[in-house]
Amino acid sequence: MVAFLLLLLVAVTLGIIGAAADGLGYLLAIGIVLFLADVAFITVRGARRLRRRPIR
After folding, report:
1. Is residue 54 one of the residues assigned to a domain?
2. Mind giving me the DSSP string for 14-44?
3. Predicted pLDDT at 4
4. 17 exposed, middle or buried (CB, 10 Å; 0-12, 13-18, 19+)?
5. pTM of the model
6. Shortest CA distance to 33 belongs to which of 46, 19, 14, 20?
7. pLDDT at position 49 over 80
8. By residue range, what is the domain housing residue 14?
9. CA 48 to CA 45: how far, in whole Å?
10. Could you count the other beta carbons within 10 Å of the beta carbon of residue 56?
11. Residues 9-31: what's their mean pLDDT?
12. How many CA atoms within 13 Å lie on the side-chain side of 16?
């Protein structure tokens, strides 16, 4: 959970800097990609926890 929150914080920070600073649009793009990767990571991790082993 710490990794998720850290990546989310970095993504938001890069997005804000990229949107506010002139000529640093690539930081906004990196922030968006990082945010999407973070959402995919937490989705896969959550889906893995929902699977249950069959009772033998």
Report:
1. no
2. HHHHHHHSTT-HHHHHHHHHHHHHHHHHHHH
3. 79
4. middle
5. 0.70
6. 14
7. no
8. 2-49
9. 5
10. 3
11. 85
12. 5
